[in-house]
Amino acid sequence: MSKSRALINGAVWNYGAQISTVILQFGYAAVTTRAVSAQGFGTYGVALTVGAFVSLLANGGLGQAAGRMTELASARTRGLSAYGSMLGIVGAIALFLTADFWAAIWQTPEAAGPVRWMSLMALTGPLFGLVTGMMRRLGSFRQLAILVFVCNIVGMLIGAFAVSIWRTPSSLLISPIIAQSAVVLVGFVLYTRLLVGRWNFAEALHDLSFSWKLTAARLLSYVSGNAGKYGVTVSLGASTLGVWNRTDVLTSVPFNQLQTAMVQAVYPEFRHDISSPKRAYNTWPDLLGLVAWVALPLGALVAVVVPSLVPILFGPGWEGVAALVPVLAMAAAVQMIVIILGSAIEALGRFKLIWATQAALVIIQVAAAGITVATKDWTPVLVTIFLAFGVQHVFHIVFCSRTGYLNVSRLLRHYGSAVAAMLVIAAASAASVWLLHEAPLPWGISIVTTAVLLSTWALWRLREKLPPFRIAREYGVF
């Protein structure tokens, strides 16, 4: 199997498991949304955000450090395992003891209980990152995908039962806690030799240096990514954050799963570009072009079609979700492209650029959050999501162009064709939704079905002229 096929195979297994999880999450969300109020989901969202901050500090970038290793020596991986265990214990204790403080910061006193539950996530978070990063580095994509999928199913089944009984924000955390803990437990059983035994921090110092730098970058990214949610919660209340949280289930979560699958598959390969940009010059634009061709049309489809499905999925009382879906769907689509290039630069170890870019984003997002708090209008926060992604991507493209890592003209051609495809998909989706609402039901369904079939047939006949197909053929995928 060629390297290109191996990467695609890894991404397919990753995404197959994750998108299957997302589909099950829709059912899980349909149950939990009817059991917990918007205010409860807002409280849950606060706990997730606070827990993510502590877990970020505790995780130490161990998964990425393992993923870029040229050789998985047991002395190094055991050192990272011991380090991760200590980080998890410290993070869990700190989060448990400071729960009331974080709830006061977010002006949501009822979040203290769920935040304490999040300490269990902080406990296993570093080891979860290490286990999954190591399995990706070993190329065990299929094994990892099955493991994560099964653990997620078990977590959701137990979690849905718990939510249906207790109907509290804290009960919403049972599912992710069980799923993450199960992955860590099974991972240690499978890779005992690499994770358990005598260890030496000296062997892992190089990897720890990378993880510390990555943690600093992740911290800046966390602030820029959550400043808006903080402003919305403080100015408009936890119930508004609950609407945002439910919208994420339909938009950001599926796109993030696809994004994660792609990044996890290609991240270890970026290590080959650390010493020279020669391979990356045309390969990176092609990779970004493929991502754009997937993300932008899919984002347009979700933005147009999903709002009409919200009442069916979540029931009454969630009208705000339908209005927010188009914005967050397109933001998630753009983020996929931005994160792929950012991950490549991260793997190169160019942290000065990453820190400078994230610092600029923090300024933008904090300013937008301040305006939202002052005006009690969250439009500035939503607008600056796109502004922040645009600034980050432009910074990264300029850097890669100047250092010889990116053929910009090739990249812009790919982006132009992907945007054109996005506009066509948006127009066709809007027409289909209008027909299904306005035309008599049998006629509307017949027309839309016929149009979809004809479009699929035409795309297949013209596939050789489509940029994503040509790129995939060039790299031996087909």
Automatic annotation (TrEMBL):
Keywords: Cell membrane, Membrane, Transmembrane, Transmembrane helix. Coiled coil: none annotated. It is found in: Cell membrane. The chain crosses the membrane at residues 12-31, 43-62, 83-105, 117-135, 144-166, 172-191, 287-314, 320-341, 353-375, 381-400, 412-435, 441-460. It is a multi-pass membrane protein. One of its GO terms (cellular component) is plasma membrane. It holds the Pfam family Polysacc_synt_3. It comes from the Bacteria. Belongs to the polysaccharide synthase family. This is O-antigen/teichoic acid export membrane protein. It comes from Cryobacterium roopkundense.
